[in-house]
Each structure stands twice: as C-alpha cells, then as structure tokens.
C-alpha cells in the first residue's frame, strides 16, 4: 500500500496532524505546517514530472499510479486511487494554496494549534478527494473536507460568523445528501446483470450500463450535489457569507480549492458516468450556470466589502467552470480545468491580500479606504496584478482560461448554447467594471484615512505567500500550452467514447 | 421433558448466573463490601460479554422447547452488542451509583438492569408469542421502577407513571393484535403463523391485527405517533437509566420488531407493513427532528434525537433483506457508542455540577476541553459525519434500504431521510456551537471527572473512531446475516 506515491497525499497530512498535536508553541506549529505543506508541494511537483514522463513513454491507461485495496469487502468498497492530468493539476493547486495559506495564517489568534489541526483535517479531505476514484471513498473525503469549515469559520471568523458558518455547513451538507442518494443509485444500477457491483469510477464508466431512465433521475442529483459546492445559482447563497466571514487562510482554501471540488465532481462523477443524461439535461444547468456567471458579476459591482466583492466574483468565475463543463466538448472542458486552476490561484491571492489589508486597516469597506498604493506599495501592486488576472489580461492566467472556454463554447452550434455563451461573455466586461472600480478607489485615489499613513508594508511571510501565487498565475498565463497538454492527456479516446463526443 | 434443552440458552444462563451472583453479593455481603458492588457487577458483565463472544455463540441455528426459543449466530451477535452497551452503561453509572443518595439501593439498580436485559434476550430469541410477551414485560416493568429511582425528585415519579401507563397500554394493544392473529391462524408460533399466512389470501382482519402489533412495538421504539412519553420519561429518569432506555431498550426492540415483521408477516403482508413502516419512518424522522430543534434541556434534546434515530433504524427493516438486517445491527452498535458518549459527558457534568441545560454548555471548551471534544465526536457521529462511525452506519443503512429494489418510492424515502440528516446536523451543531463558538465565560467550571467516567469515555470514543474505519465489524455482521439471516431461517 505504501509503495504507491498517491497514498502520501493523505499520509503526510495525517503525520502533520500528529506533529501539530504534539507542538508546544507557535514556532513549532509554523515549522510543522510549513514543512508539511512543502513536502506536499514537492510531492505534487514530482508527481507532475513523473506523470509527464510516463505519458511520454507511452502509458495510455486512463489513470496512472493505480492502486486498489479492499475496504468493505462485502459491498466491494475499495480504497482505489489513481490520477490523470486533471487530478494532478488539482493536487498541485491544493498544495500551493495550502502552503500559501499556512504563511497567510502566520499570526493566527486565538488557539493556533486548533486552527491548524482543523485546517489540515480539511486538507486531508481535499487531497483524498482528488486521488480517489472509488465513489464511496471520494464521497467520504468530500464530507471530511466540509465539516472543519464550520469550526474554522465559527471560531476564527469575523462578522456574522456563526450564522455564516451554519448556513455554509448546512447548504453544503444538503448538497451532499443529494449526492449520497445518487451514489447509491449508481452503485445499484451501474453494472450489467450478473457482474459484481462496484463503486469504482473507471469500471462503472467502462460498463456504461446505467439505464437511460436512471441516468435522468440520478444525473440532476449528482450535478446539483456537486453544483452546490461549485456555487451554482440558486444554491450559491452560502458562498458570499461564508467567504466574507472566514479567516484568511480558510477563505483561500475554500474559494481556491474546495469550490473546485464541485467542478471536479460534476465532471468526474455526474458527466463522466452519466453522459446520456448529461447530453439531454445539460440545457437546464446551462441556464442556471449562465445566470450564476452574470448574476455573480453584477452582484460584485454593488458590494462595498472587499471580501463580498471577491466572493461574488468567485460565484461568477466558478459558474463559468460548470458552464464550460456542460458544453461537453474538449476545448471547453480544457478551458474549464484551466479556469479552475486560474481561479483557484488568483482568488487565493485576492483573499490573502484582503486578509493582509484588513489586518492593517481593520476595515474591509472600500468606502473607508483609499490611496493604499502610497502607503503599502507592495500589497497594492499585488492586488492590481490579481485584479488584472481576474479581468483577463493577456499574460496572466485568467485570459487563457476564459478564452479557451468561450472558444470551446462557441463550437456548440445550437441556439441556446450560442445565446448563453454570448450572455456569459458579457461577464468579462462586468468583471472589468468591478475590478477597476476597486483598484481605482482603493489603491489609486487620495488617502482616505490619515491614520492609514503609518501602516507598514508586507512582511517577509506575506511576501512569500503572495509572490508564490503571482508566479503561479503568471506561469499559467505565459505557458498555457504546457497545462493544456497536461489536461488534454486526460481526454484520451476512451473517455470520448464514454462521453459520446 | 428433556432438561438438556436448557443448555441451548447459553447466554441466558450466563446472564442468570451474573444476576444471581450480584443478588447474593448484595444480600449477604457486609455494608462496607457493598460499596464495591458496582465494580463487581461491571466485572461480571465484562466477563459475560467476553463469554458471549467466546463460547456463548452457537455454531448454527439451534432451537429448544419445541421451537419456542431459537438462537443462532446472528441472534448471539445482537445479544453481544447489547452486552457491550450494558457494560458501558454500567461503567458510566458507577460514580452516580456510589453517591450518597444511592447508598441503600445500589444493588437494586444493578439487579433491575440485569433483569430487563434478560427480558430483552427473551424478546430477541422468542419464536412463540407467549415467550415474547414474557420477555417484553420483563423488559418493561422493571424499567418503570428504574425510571422512578430518584425518589426525592418529582420528575422521576411523573416519568415513571408515564412510562408505566404507556408500557401497559402498548402491551394491551399488542396483545389485542395477537388475539386476532391467534383467531385467524390458530397458533402463536412464529413459524406456524407465517406458514398459514403465506397460503391464504390477504384478510382485512389480519391487516388490523398487524396494525395493532406495529403500534404495540412502536410504543416501545417510540416511533411517531407513539412517542409522546419519550421526552418526559427521558428527562425525569436518572441519566444512567435514560441512557439505558435510549440505546439498549431501543436496540433490542428494533431487532425484535425486525424478526416479527420479516419472519411472521414476511410472505404476503410485506406489501402491507412496508407501507405502514414507510409512513412511520417519514413521520418519526421528521417529527423527531423538528421537535429536537427547540429543546434546551440536554436530556430532552437527546430524547428527540433518539426518536429520529429510531426512524433511521427502521430503514433497515423496510428493505426486508439481509443487508438491511446487517445494517440495522451495525447501526444499533454504532448508535450505542455514539449516544453513550453523549450521555457519558452529560452524566459527568451532571454529577459534578448538576447542570443539564444546553446554555450551561456555553464555553465548555475553555474549561473542560476533553469533555467537549468527546461531546463533539458524539454529535458528529450521531449526525453522520465522516470519518466517524455514524457516517458509515448511515451510509450502510441507506444502502441496505435500497438493496435489491428498483422502487422509486424507496428512493424518495431515502431522500427524505437524507434531507432530514441536514436538519439533524443543525441541532447537533447547536451543541458544538455552544461548546466551541460561544465567547461567554464558561458556566461549568473546570473539574476532573471520575475515573470510571473517563474509562467509559475512552471506550466510546474508541468505538466512534474505529467502528467505522476498521471494516471488519460491518463485514462480519453482514457475512453472518447472509449466512444465518432472513433466508437462513431465523424462525
């Protein structure tokens, strides 16, 4: 079992949990958190290199590094792991954000030990989810990732934290209720007569045996279940409140990684296993996600709290991910995965910066701040870069992702898809409106509050955190082909057959 | 009569020996030695549990007294599960039982508990309704005495009267149903009734009889609409008795219910009782949850939570298959550990400070981090959050309910149950919120709980953590059920 490299994505955080449990002071906690997340980052980078090497050498299985270990033999539940290009991209994203998140919560107070314990428990869920290909274990890790949020927001959050924490937990768990039903349904209908039932994604996809009626019953449940986490309209209301009240590192992880669980799950479970229903019912969800994209952007325009602006912009961008997945073609899907990476990095950057600004000015209301460029130039420039990435400036990640998505979406020739693609395109303009408004008021205008003039610029750990993220955003923007190829290895011919493309 | 038949009742004999030893100890030992009677009983029940696992387990289905009594590995397994639960309840009760007020009736508490356990054994093993009723009464009436145990408390008496009247009333309804069954089939043996029922067409009178039987057992399980006694009794009874009522009594009744429904009325009438149960489950889960939302007394809160949990347990019956049965047993096992962990904390706090209100739990994490941690695990497990055992038991009970069916109605039922888990998560999180999120100064001061209470907490926490992740528990129960379960002639 331990010869499989993927297992270490769960083992390392478990060791970190033990390590932090034994820590006695802040320095030790930081040391464990940073060492552990560096190890995870190193592991995912190694995995990326090794994976590309294997693919170049001609490995053509849909998933590599496969491992199966029986867990509940009576139900044929297995701990199955395996990764393809998409999962590797997601693992890389998660470990980067966990690392930067640890730096961002350098001075967390109170109860630092508990904070990191819950944060790392959350990351176990995230990593476990991305390496699993057994529906049961996948679902289990998914729920493991959800519940620490309650305490993380409830204890360390700001504002109406108890309300937001409860709302977020209940809505996400509500999604997972639908999800559980659809997983059990897939289990009972996913294999042909006489074959042993299985939770294994790849096998179910290979049998392709879910009857048409069942697909139409189970697909909406699975899609809504994951869609709630992907902030799909009208199930997005947890997202602004949750993000606004969460502490910095949690906002980063949540918007950066956890929301991607939704998109990933929609792709990996709902569409991959039930392609016929996806083809028939995509229009319903296309309308909903189309609304998310535009509605999120418009809502961001009228907010004055920095975190709310960013949270609504996340609704809009994550809506775009689901929107692109529903287009059911390679280009759009590649774009969707790129958008997940891009949004994950830039939104984490945003939340990190907002946390740093808030830590200094003690307000997040843009009406009460101004001219920060003069006061804290480093943070201000970083904020500007993040903003440009978000509105899709070429050379940064947002442009590549959105471009790919819209080109892919336009490949679909029917009217509804065309209309909604055009509507979704408008969101780019609206994004520019709310980003430039913030940049203009917050960074460039005159200094609003004289007390702010004494504030200091970023410290070394804050610089580490932000520079890492900016480098990653720029890397995707400058070398999009590398990532596109990595993702494209996933859409191998077999998967097209399943998707019926 | 062949007296060697008694040897089939290995576990009952073991329990009887334990009971007699405790009784003799209580009667003949000096007053000083009597202080150790709780520890002595825990030791004996511990031995009984070990005995049940090692040699109390029959190799195959065995019966005695012309089929009135049956035991099989599955039946031995559920009895062992109950033993484990009783053991934990007894460990938790040590410090309460050793307190001043209890001094003169220490032994009685233990003896009454053992007698009710004996009754539950009979309920589970009975394959003749006479023996079943003896078991049922034996399990109910001493409990009324136990509920009234705190004789200086008004609530305790009120609860006891309520419990007594309900128990008698439900027995009467149950026997009313039985008299119809006897009239129509001419027998009280489970097997004979089943064979007569299977050959004849559906009769309206038997449906009425079935409804009476369901209602009678429904009282015992506190299914809605037969639940009205639950909250008051749980609140009034001493906490040890409440925890006993909520897990052991409920667990044994659930299993007996499964046997009656699937074995006696399994053939033709499953169409009928499945719909009855369908309605009962929806009502039980929903009403239990909705009422739990507004409770502030911890014991009342857990009373309503246990009502809704009973609804989930019933999901194991409605599928009418081996997997459902295995999931039901596993659910009971996990429920015992989770609920007892919660009651362990409640009891420790009650013993130390006498506080029982949810508002008293505010800021508990600041003063008693370990207790609040145990409570949090218990709440998460009851709510079905992974990686704790409650998640697995919920998942399996849903899987069991849907096993071998394509009926959309059952999928809808499971969906309703799943949505209800969200409601339940809300009120379980309220406790977590009070303990961890509240900024107020803690009401309960820091205190050190008794050694026995800590042992019980460790055991329950170990159960919550490992019962799910370690797969062999569920695997083994399922294998047993597939071998000796519904098809393997429980009758």
Q: Detail the poorly predicted runs of chain B.
A: none
Tell me the number of helical segments of chain B per DSSP (H or I, 4 or more residues long): 20
Number of spatially distinct domains of chain A: 1
The geometry of chain B reads as globular
Q: Treating each run of at least 4 consecutive H or I residues as one helix, how many helices of chain A?
A: 20
pLDDT averaged residue by residue of chain A: 87
Give the structural class of chain A: mainly alpha
Helical fraction of chain A equals: over 70%
- How are strands sequenced across the largest beta sheet of chain A? 1-2
Order of helices and strands of chain A: HHEEHHHHHHHHHHHHHHHHHH
Number of domains of chain B: 1
Biggest interface: A-B, 33 and 32 residues
* Structural class label of chain B: mainly alpha
Alpha-carbon distance between the termini of chain A? Answer: 36 Å
Strand residue content of chain A: under 5%
Shape of chain A: globular
Notes on the protein architecture:
The complex is a heterodimer of chains A (501) and B (491). With 501 residues, chain A is mainly alpha-helical. In chain A, 75% of the residues lie in helices and 3% in strands. Chain A has a two-stranded antiparallel sheet with strand order 1-2. In chain A, a hairpin with a 4-residue loop joins β1 and β2. The model of chain A has no long low-confidence stretch (mean pLDDT 87). By secondary structure, chain B is mostly helical. Chain B has one domain (3-484). Chain B has helices at 10-28, 31-34, 37-54, 73-97, 106-125, 129-147, 154-185, 190-199, 204-221, 230-236, 239-264, 270-292, 298-318, 322-353, 364-367, 369-383, 389-402, 408-437, 451-469, 472-484; strands at 62-64, 69-71. In chain B, strands 1-2 form a two-stranded antiparallel sheet. In chain B, a hairpin with a 4-residue loop joins β1 (62-64) and β2. In chain B, α6 runs antiparallel to α7. The chains are: A mainly alpha (501), B mainly alpha (491). Chain A binds chain B through residues 71-75, 77, 136, 140-141, 143-144, 147, 150-151, 154-155, 161-162, 165-166, 169-170, 173-174, 177-178, 180-181, 184-185, 187-188, 217, and chain B through 380, 385-387, 391, 395-396, 398-399, 402-403, 408, 411, 414-415, 418-419, 421-422, 425-426, 429, 432-433, 436-437, 471, 474-475, 478-479, 482.
């Amino acid at each position: 079992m331990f010869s499989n490299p993927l297992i270490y994505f769960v083992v390392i955080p478990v060791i970190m949990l033990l390590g932090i449990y034994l820590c006695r002071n802040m320095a030790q906690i930081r040391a464990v958190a940073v060492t552990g997340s560096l190890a995870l980052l190193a592991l995912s980078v190694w995995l990326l290199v090794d994976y590309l090497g294997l693919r170049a050498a001609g490995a053509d299985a849909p998933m590599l590094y496969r491992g199966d270990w029986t867990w509940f033999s009576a139900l044929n539940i297995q701990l199955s792991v395996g990764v393809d290009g998409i999962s590797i991209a997601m693992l890389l994203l998660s470990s980067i954000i966990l690392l930067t998140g640890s730096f961002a919560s350098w001075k967390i107070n109170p109860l630092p030990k508990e904070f990191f314990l819950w944060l790392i428990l959350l990351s176990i869920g995230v990593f476990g989810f991305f390496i699993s290909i057994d529906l049961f274990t996948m679902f289990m890790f998914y729920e493991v990732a959800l519940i620490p949020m309650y305490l993380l927001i409830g204890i360390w959050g700001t504002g109406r934290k108890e309300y937001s924490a409860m709302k977020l937990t209940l809505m996400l768990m509500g999604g997972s209720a639908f999800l559980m039903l659809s997983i059990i349904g897939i289990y009972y209908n996913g294999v042909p007569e006489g074959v042993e039932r299985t939770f294994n994604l790849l096998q179910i996809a290979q049998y392709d045996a879910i009857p048409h009626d069942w697909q139409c019953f189970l697909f909406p449940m699975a899609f809504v279940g994951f869609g709630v986490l992907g902030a799909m309209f009208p199930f997005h209301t947890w997202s602004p409140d949750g993000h606004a009240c969460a502490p910095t590192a949690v906002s980063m992880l949540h918007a950066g990684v956890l929301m991607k669980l939704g998109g990933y799950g929609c792709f990996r479970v709902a569409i991959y296993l039930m392609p016929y229903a996806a083809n028939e019912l995509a229009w319903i969800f296309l309308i909903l996600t189309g609304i998310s994209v535009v509605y999120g952007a418009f809502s961001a325009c009228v907010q004055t709290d920095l975190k709310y602006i960013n949270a609504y912009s996340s609704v809009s961008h994550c809506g775009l991910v689901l929107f692109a997945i529903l287009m059911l073609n390679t280009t759009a899907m590649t774009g969707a995965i790129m958008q997940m990476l891009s949004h994950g990095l830039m939104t984490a950057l945003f939340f990190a910066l907002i946390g740093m600004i808030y830590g200094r000015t003690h307000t997040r209301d843009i009406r009460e701040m101004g001219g920060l460029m003069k006061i804290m130039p480093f943070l201000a420039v970083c904020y500007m870069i993040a903003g440009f990435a978000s509105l899709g400036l070429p050379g940064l990640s947002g442009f590549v992702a959105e471009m790919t998505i819209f080109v892919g979406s336009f490949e679909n020739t029917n009217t509804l898809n065309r209309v909604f693609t055009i509507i979704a395109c408008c969101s780019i303009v609206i994004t520019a409106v709310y980003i430039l408004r913030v940049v203009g008021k917050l960074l460039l205008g005159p200094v609003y509050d004289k007390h702010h003039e004494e504030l200091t610029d970023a410290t070394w750990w804050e610089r580490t955190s932000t520079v890492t993220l900016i480098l990653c955003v720029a890397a995707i923007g400058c070398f999009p082909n590398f990532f596109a190829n990595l993702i494209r290895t996933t859409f191998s011919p077999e998967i097209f057959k399943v998707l019926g493309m | 009569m062949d007296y060697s038949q008694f040897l089939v009742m290995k576990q009952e004999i073991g329990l009887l020996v334990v009971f007699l030893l405790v009784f003799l100890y209580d009667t003949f030992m000096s007053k000083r030695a009597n202080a150790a009677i709780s520890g002595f009983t825990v030791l004996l029940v511990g031995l009984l549990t070990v005995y049940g696992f090692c040699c109390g387990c029959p190799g195959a289905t065995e019966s005695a007294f012309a089929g009135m009594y049956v035991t099989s590995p599955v039946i031995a397994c559920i009895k062992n599960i109950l033993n484990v639960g009783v053991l934990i309840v007894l460990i938790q009760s040590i410090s309460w039982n050793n307190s001043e007020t209890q001094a003169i009736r220490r032994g009685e508490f233990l003896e009454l508990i053992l007698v009710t356990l004996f009754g539950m054994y009979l309920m589970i093993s009975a394959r003749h309704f006479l023996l079943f009723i003896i078991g049922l009464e034996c399990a109910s009436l001493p409990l009324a005495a136990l509920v009234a145990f705190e004789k200086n408390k008004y609530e305790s008496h009120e609860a006891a009267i309520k419990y007594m009247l309900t128990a008698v009333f439900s027995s009467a309804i149950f026997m009313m149903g039985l008299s119809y069954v006897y009239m129509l089939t001419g027998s009280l043996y489970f097997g004979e009734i089943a064979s007569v029922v299977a050959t004849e067409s559906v009769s309206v009178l038997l449906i009425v009889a079935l409804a009476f039987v369901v209602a009678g057992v429904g009282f015992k399980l506190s299914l809605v609409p037969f639940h009205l006694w639950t909250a008051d009794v749980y609140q009034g009874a001493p906490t040890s008795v409440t925890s006993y009522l909520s897990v052991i009594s409920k667990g044994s009744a659930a299993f007996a219910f499964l046997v009656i429904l699937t074995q006696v009325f399994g053939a033709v009438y499953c169409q009928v009782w499945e719909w009855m149960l369908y309605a009962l489950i929806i009502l039980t889960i929903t009403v239990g949850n909705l009422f739990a939302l507004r409770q502030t007394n911890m014991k009342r809160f857990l009373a309503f939570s246990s009502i809704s949990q009973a609804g989930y347990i019933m999901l194991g019956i409605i599928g009418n298959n081996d997997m459902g049965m295995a999931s039901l047993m596993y659910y009971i096992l996990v429920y015992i550990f989770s609920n007892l962990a919660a009651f362990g904390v409640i009891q420790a706090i009650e013993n130390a400070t006498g506080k029982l209100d949810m508002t008293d739990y505010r800021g508990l994490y600041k003063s008693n981090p370990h207790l609040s941690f145990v409570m949090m695990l218990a709440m998460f497990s009851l709510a079905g959050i992974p990686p704790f055992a409650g998640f697995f038991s919920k998942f399996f009970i849903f899987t069991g309910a849907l096993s071998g069916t394509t009926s959309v109605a059952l999928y809808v039922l499971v969906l309703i149950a799943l949505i209800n888990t969200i409601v339940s998560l809300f009120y379980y999180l309220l406790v977590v919120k009070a303990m961890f999120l509240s900024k107020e100064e803690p009401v309960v001061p820091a205190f050190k709980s008794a050694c026995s209470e800590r042992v019980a907490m460790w055991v329950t926490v170990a159960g919550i953590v490992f019962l799910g992740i370690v797969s062999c528990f569920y695997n083994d129960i399922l294998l047993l059920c597939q071998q000796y379960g519904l098809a393997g002639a429980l009758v």
